[in-house]
Write a structure and sequence with these properties.
By secondary structure, chain A is α+β, with helices and mostly antiparallel strands. Chain A is built from 4 helices and 9 strands, in the order E-H-E-E-E-H-E-E-H-E-E-H-E. In chain A, strands 1-9 form a two-stranded antiparallel ribbon. Chain A has a two-stranded antiparallel sheet with strand order 3-4. Chain A is globular and about 40 Å long. The N and C termini of chain A lie close together (6 Å). Chain B is an alpha+beta fold. Helix content of chain B is 41%, strand content 13%. The longest helix of chain B has 21 residues. The chains are: A alpha+beta (121), B alpha+beta (587). Chains A and B meet through helix 1 and strand 2 of A and strand 13, helix 7 and strand 14 of B. Strand 2 of chain A pairs antiparallel with strand 13 of chain B.
Amino acid sequence: MMLFFEGRCTGCRTCEYICSGIKNRAFNPSRSAIKIEREGIVDRALFCNQCGDCIEVCPTEALYREDDIVRLNRESCSGCRLCVDACTIEGIFIDKIDGKAVKCDLCGECVKFCVTHALEV
Amino acid sequence: MFAGTTLTIDLSKKMILHTPTDMHRARMFLGGRGASAAMLLECIPPHIDPLSEDNVLILATGPFTGTSIPLTSRFTASTKSPLTESYLDSSCGGSFGPEMKFAGYDFIVIRGKSETPCYISIETETTQILDASHLWGKDSFETFDILKRDHKGKKAIIGRAGENCVKYACVSIDRFRQLGRGGVGAVFGSKNLKAITVRGDRDLEIPHFEKFWETMAEYHDYINRDPWTQDFIEAGTVCLVEMMNELGVMPVENFSDGSDEKAERIDAEEMKKYLIQNKTCSVCSVQCGKLVRSKDGKYLEGPDYETIGLLGSNLGIFDFDFIIKANLACDDFGMDTISVGGTIAFAMEAARNGLLEGIPPFGDTEGVMSLLEDIALRRGIGNLLAEGSKIASEKIGGKDYAIQIKGMEIAAYDPRGSRGMTLAYATADRGGCHLRGWPIEAEMNGKMNRFSFENQAAHLIHLQHCKAVLDSLIRCEMVDLNEYDLKLLNILTDWDLEIEDLYRMGERIYNTSRIFIVREGMGRKDDSIPKKLFNVPVRSGASKGHIIPEEEFNRAIDEYYSIRKWDKNGVPTREKLVELGIDSFLR
């Protein structure tokens, strides 16, 4: 499980760059599985907490659990957005380039670059 | 790495044009400040009025923009400055630059003038020129809140100072970052351009992925180990208050003194009483942004050292809470804190000597607050001060009190305590600027003698070239240019450059902006410092009694020109321009 400590986040969004870069071999924060949203002076991270509520609503069984991680088989994903609607913490997104779901698979790459330890595994 | 497209928007003709980015130019000048300097020379004829529709504004990213290379979120705005009537580039962090790149653009060129207030909305597929009549007359923060409802992404906004063409009006990026110096905001205002919003979701593909990723990750470690990074994490640039006060170069009462025992009321320890949290630009671990809260509950990312110097000690004010509020007011009206502070200090000294009336005395916080509003709205005496200290002093007298170079008020380092900064200000292409080379660092760590011009010219020239490269990559100057920059540039572009090639690019960029300056009729007479600094010694502190000896200064300028292969008047020789491959700019 990945944890976010709000008071430590400087809003640098390096996690978004790293996530989109490592997953797509291209930088594009809009495709990241973690998003930093600034509201007033507070930076908040949105990402999957691996609760699995989305698994039940997925009509193509693209979402499944493997140990503690909820995984996504992108080939099976139809981009129906039911998982996005079912997620209560805004932790799963739709990729604008290919129209399929994007979610955190706890690869931990963003955590390595988070110098203030706002993200921890 | 380039997005490949340049967007041109003509506000007079309501025309939007896409052209391929000139890769030959990129190979010569990189992006950002360098490429824009070349573009300005090509598209602006000499002697145009900077506030007319003839002026052109170029927003630029560089090959590093939009990547995860640390400290690379900055972008530049280049134009002819209404403050100096000459060359200008101004840069800014945040994440407007990366967003431009993700929208698909390396450069955004804005020409002409809209007949009515407008703003520009740029998204990945569409660019629109939209009506801004509902925004005109509003300051930056309110405009941001309104635009936020309809536009995601990043916003560049002017307040009322920009609308009123205050000569040093700035552009705010979202809330807390500014294209600060030289009046880019006034150029926006003169074009009836209230704001630009930009949002993008294109991929920036990473070439040579494994090699890039490994080098980029090492670079993050390198930056995190840099000693300056630790200082900035601790206190941002506010750490400089104590250092500069001890050196005797912190401006006090319009550069009358270089230190003050009350400096502890505006230093890093004092700042921590207001500090909520560190904040940063995109992809940056240096964390120089300090989110502070004023006593009446207002938030600001800042103030930085220069603002503390120019809106604080140089006005005889040692009150951190006031400096936060004054900084916020400047950001909201959209005015450069350095130039407005320098101009008010000029007015205070002029008033003390009987040249002006109705100006608050040094130390009067309420008076300064109300004068800031008068200037932004060009009300009463504010209308004169909105022209900057150079023009104001030409109109009412007191030229010796106008601490400006080429029309731009100098930053918060008293030249009399730093020969390096003296030369850096005098030869800075955009005027009295501390960001073309910062030799005071070498003076602080003992590598250079701060009271001697010996070797200063050669040292400064190298720094100026490094900075020109950083501003064109674009990477923030908080960490010096280094081998990682070179390695990553080569990986991203498939170029095969050596570090010497980068220095040569820096020299080419510096000579290109110099051609612009010379073309406007500026030269040796303008590469000088205010008379006060030649004649009046520093009152107290570690620089007590020091002036700049004028003859030594002149010899240092001679040496500087000679190393640069510029003639006695500061004009680059044809031989030098041929060597740099830019003699075609000499028409």
